[in-house]
Design goal:
The complex is a heterotetramer, with 2 copies of chain A (about 210 residues) and 2 copies of chain C (about 325 residues).
Chain A: E1 3-5, H1 6-9, H2 12-22, H3 24-34, H4 39-54, H5 61-75, H6 80-94, E2 100-102, H7 103-121, H8 131-146, H9 151-169, H10 192-210
Chain C: H1 11-22, E1 27-29, E2 35-38, E3 48-55, E4 72-78, H2 84-94, E5 100-105, H3 108-123, E6 128-133, H4 153-166, H5 171-183, E7 185-191, E8 211-214, E9 225-228, H6 232-246, E10 253-260, H7 266-282, E11 286-293, E12 303-311, H8 313-320
Parallel strand pairs in C: 3-4, 3-5, 5-6, 10-11
Antiparallel strand pairs in C: 1-2, 2-4, 7-8, 7-12, 8-9, 10-12
Helix pairs in contact in C: 2-3, 4-5, 6-7
The chains are: A mainly alpha (about 210), C alpha/beta (about 325).
The complex binds adenosine-5'-diphosphate (2 copies) and magnesium ion (4 copies).
Chain lengths: ~210, ~210, ~325, ~325
Amino acid sequence: MDSVSLKDAGPIVADMAAVIVEHAAYLSEIDGAIGDGDHGINMSKGFRRAGERLGPHPPDLAQGFATLGETLLDEIGGSTGPLYGSFFLDMAASLKGRDAIDRDSFGAMLHAGVAAVIDLGGAKTGDKTLVDVLAPAVATYDEAAAKGEPFHTCLEALDRASEAGLEATRDMVARIGRASRLGERSRGHLDAGAASCRMLLGALSRGLRRHL
Amino acid sequence: MDSVSLKDAGPIVADMAAVIVEHAAYLSEIDGAIGDGDHGINMSKGFRRAGERLGPHPPDLAQGFATLGETLLDEIGGSTGPLYGSFFLDMAASLKGRDAIDRDSFGAMLHAGVAAVIDLGGAKTGDKTLVDVLAPAVATYDEAAAKGEPFHTCLEALDRASEAGLEATRDMVARIGRASRLGERSRGHLDAGAASCRMLLGALSRGLRRHL
Amino acid sequence: MNRVVNNPEEVVEDAVTGLLAAHPDLLAATDNPRVIRAVGAPKSGKVGIVTGGGSGHEPAFVGYVGPGLIDAVALGEVFASPSARSFHHAFKAADGGHGVACLYGNYAGDNMNVKMAVKLAEREGLVVKTVVANDDVASAPAEEASKRRGVAGEILTWKVGAARADERADLDAVIVSAQKAIDATRSIGIGLSACTIPAAGKPNFTIKEGHMEVGIGHHGEPGVAVVPTRSARDMAALMMDAILADLPFAGEDVAVLVSGLGATPLMELYILYGHVAEILAAHHIAPRHRFVGNYFTSLDMMGVSVTLMRLDAELDRLISAPARSIGLTIGGKS
Amino acid sequence: MNRVVNNPEEVVEDAVTGLLAAHPDLLAATDNPRVIRAVGAPKSGKVGIVTGGGSGHEPAFVGYVGPGLIDAVALGEVFASPSARSFHHAFKAADGGHGVACLYGNYAGDNMNVKMAVKLAEREGLVVKTVVANDDVASAPAEEASKRRGVAGEILTWKVGAARADERADLDAVIVSAQKAIDATRSIGIGLSACTIPAAGKPNFTIKEGHMEVGIGHHGEPGVAVVPTRSARDMAALMMDAILADLPFAGEDVAVLVSGLGATPLMELYILYGHVAEILAAHHIAPRHRFVGNYFTSLDMMGVSVTLMRLDAELDRLISAPARSIGLTIGGKS
Ligand SMILES: Nc1ncnc2c1ncn2[C@@H]1O[C@H](COP(=O)(O)OP(=O)(O)O)[C@@H](O)[C@H]1O
Ligand SMILES: Nc1ncnc2c1ncn2[C@@H]1O[C@H](COP(=O)(O)OP(=O)(O)O)[C@@H](O)[C@H]1O
Ligand SMILES: [Mg+2]
Ligand SMILES: [Mg+2]
Ligand SMILES: [Mg+2]
Ligand SMILES: [Mg+2]
């Protein structure tokens, strides 16, 4: 079966950090519409510092995710720090003992990450959070994998599903987090966490596909 | 020589209180232009309470002034309380032992009151304060008295001079009190304390003349 | 925005510098720049007391670090939870070998960061137990009390938990007392103006001039009603009605705390307290401990909050125990 | 204006009600509703310490009544001197048979009312001596120091005078120490917003948004310059320059007091203090006593003031002596 060595995949973490840092202003702007306008600041601070910790010679993907998760837990408070922190830490943990990632271990990794987010934050699908990107992305990935699609195709499906998941948050009423205070008024805006999550999954998917 | 019994003059204190209470809003308005806008409040509070203390049966003028002065010292802080308080107390003291007031004892009384104000407040003519009503009023009164004019005429001269004194404050630059902070910007406005002082001297002059 | 700051992104760093310089007798730095411990902490043989929360509420949280109160505090960005690692480091700074009680407020970020921090600590064999303050009656109905935010009642909970720890109670006993404290405590606030986070430069919510937001949260969270501003007397009645309807206080002894939200002149807090005292008297409630001041603020917000804690003999004793800190000193007889 | 008041004309009455209800252990009413005395005052055998001033500066003035501090205080309307009679009654309430030291601030109204009050007291054989605080360097040049206003330096002067009286020094000795205290003290403030007297309903001065009034007075009196708002670091430098140019402090021990003017968040006062501490260090000035908080306010004004007192052994001892009050508690070790 197709797989990518974790070593080769290491630099993808830098790509993920880059996309967040580049879109920091955009993420804050979305958060500003229905939240407190700091999502881009929080995320870019965490990902920039993770980038600094990772240094010029990227370690393998597992180590990269572990460092990312730790940095977020160390330096970023609010909701983002612990949510994304445990997302990446638990994904890193699921890779323990491996030196390559394939379709099934990627699926297992994603499940571990999503479970961590849901376990910690308690958000359900439809609450207008990053879970609304994660849940359909992982479900679509699972479906494709169950159909026996190759890793590359599953990753494409994940990418598309995360984009659709993000778009779907626009019409949701927030039921968790700061935006939930606004009730109906939160409808009509994308969710900031969903937007950053879609960027991260997109960069991850693209990065892995480059090696397949 | 013409004189008025202090007993007959007693009700004048009520007239003086009335003119202040009636013009409270106007006095505050003037103070508002170059001060802190409370002169009418301060004065009317003091004169109203003095009126209450004096009760329905007015005592003689000396006792009336004493009560007025004490009330101002008791209840009104700021600058107005002690300035007008000692003005009236020292006028009352100068009437001690008399039961009538004539041209010369009125002059002596006024001198005592003006001296108290100047001693306490240290204002000089031209500083744009109530002294700019008091000083010309007493000077004009003295002149008329020195010429041998009767009490009634001297009181008329006092009335006119206090009006002119008030008008003269309009073109002065404040050198003492709150308005002095404004420097040149204080020019073009009447001084609030001068305005109340002119009202008080006017009511006093008119009230005594009614008995002459 | 016209304020006393340098780089608005670095207000917390700059404030910490000043705090440590001003209070070397009370506060000590740790390796984590967002964790401050009490001078003399950790005290061996004693349960450590930790709290933490977003900055901008000063004297909360750091202002309650000191003998008889908090052993270590985690500081977040303005109005944002401290990181999980900072909570974790605060636990370590407070640990005197008998475990740590983390007494904090019920906010999504704090809940998650504390939860992660407790996991990190557990891995190292450090036992941490938590009490989550949820005293704000306006933030959710009584049936959903677990969703309520923690506000100024946290201060009284810290006082109780810390005093109990000073009595050398074990971790479970400290947790029981602190939980009892917050369960016996109710708060509500009224906001009269928005506040401005320096990094944002402008308020991120508004209160219409001449109106008041009843039940406002400490970050400007919407309350239960926006109504034309009433007299201080009516504000007190409104707040006390909400508190007294939520928990029976009649005939009890209480600790009462009136806090300004930042910009309200102290004289107005006393005006409000006068009416609170009247209402207490009418309900035969005896205010044994009275705190009036800026105890838990929201930057430059105009407004006020009222907190009541029902006292039994234990809570009364623990509130009375000596303590010294920037925000609260008790027993400084002279 | 959106504030916590009832009838705006009666804010002082209403605040007094709340003050007395909140602090029965510290404050006692007198026959004059505008005079509050310390519980236990007058103390026989001790010089009485009195102050007074306009309301709206809380915790000044009433917040410094208590053991080791003020024996009796006269309260004026908001931003207006108390009446002569109130000062007179405060003298009587503080008199323990050894005379009274009246330590107050240099304002026209206060000067006149105190002068009259002293006359009234003298007639009754009560000896009152006065010290007039004039610590605000921005309010007049050094050559006209007697015209300077008294600001937050008053607090340190009260502390010194009261501690000296507690040592059972006689009236002249108390006056000498208090005069020495204020002579060794310099202050300056920066205003960032106007404040609103409730009875007026709107500010009676303005500070342009984005600008700061350097040297502002406690009632909004114009300062020495209005300039675009600078960083906290530059504000500290500006204020310290003005203070250090006025009196040589280099190499000395000092007490330093940073006070908010009302609406400034406490965290920003600490930001400022951090820079003040830096500047002190650069001048080899040792801050032996550090006070940071809302010590002397101007209703809801945004802004800050800095006060420095040069210490000799006596002033150091007197500042260190125990005291307890709403605004300042010293020696409450626990
Ligand atoms: N309990 C939760 N579970 C999952 N995601 C959440 C939760 N709470 C908030 N989020 C996500 O976090 C985002 C906001 O992040 P951020 O702005 O960094 O934090 P904060 O709300 O503390 O300012 C939201 O847009 C939402 O997607
Ligand atoms: N030193 C002084 N000597 C004489 N009059 C003074 C002096 N200071 C102030 N005044 C008078 O007091 C008036 C202001 O009175 P008022 O508004 O009641 O007091 P405040 O200035 O305390 O608000 C001024 O208009 C001026 O005439
Ligand atoms: Mg946000
Ligand atoms: Mg005035
Ligand atoms: Mg945030
Ligand atoms: Mg006035």
